[in-house]
Write a structure and sequence with these properties.
Elements lengths: L9 E3 L36 E6 L8 H15 L3 E6 L2 E6 L2
Antiparallel strand pairs: 1-2, 2-4, 3-4
Length: about 100
C-alpha cells in the first residue's frame, strides 16, 4: 500500500554554505519535479528560501536525483536553485 507523501517545509534564513572551487564536485553543483505531482516545492520558493529533504525521504541516488529534479523544474520556471548535502539530508535553495 502506498503512503501519502510527506509535505516538505519551506524555510527562510538558512544561509547557503560556502563551497570553495577546489572542493566543488557533483554534490555542490546547481540543481525539482517533473509533470504531475511536484515532489519538491521549487515552484513555491522565494529567493533566499530553502527546503530540506531529510535522509528518510531521499531516493537511493541521493543528492544527484534531488539536484537534477530541482534544476529541471527551476529551468522550466525561469529560476535557479542550488543543492547541498547537509547533516540532516539535502537542502535546496532558490538563488534567483
Amino acid at each position: 500500500m502506498r503512503q501519502a507523501p510527506r509535505r516538505i517545509a519551506i524555510e527562510t534564513g538558512i544561509p547557503l554554505p560556502f563551497v570553495s572551487k577546489k572542493k566543488r564536485g557533483p554534490g555542490n553543483l546547481k540543481g525539482c519535479g517533473g509533470p504531475g505531482f511536484a515532489k519538491y516545492p521549487v515552484d513555491e520558493l522565494e529567493i533566499g528560501q530553502s527546503f530540506l529533504v531529510p535522509h528518510a525521504l531521499l531516493p537511493a541516488s541521493g543528492l544527484d536525483s534531488v539536484r537534477t529534479a530541482c534544476l529541471n523544474k527551476a529551468k522550466r520556471l525561469g529560476t535557479k536553485t542550488t543543492a547541498r548535502n547537509v547533516d540532516d539530508g539535502v537542502r535546496v535553495w532558490r538563488v534567483s
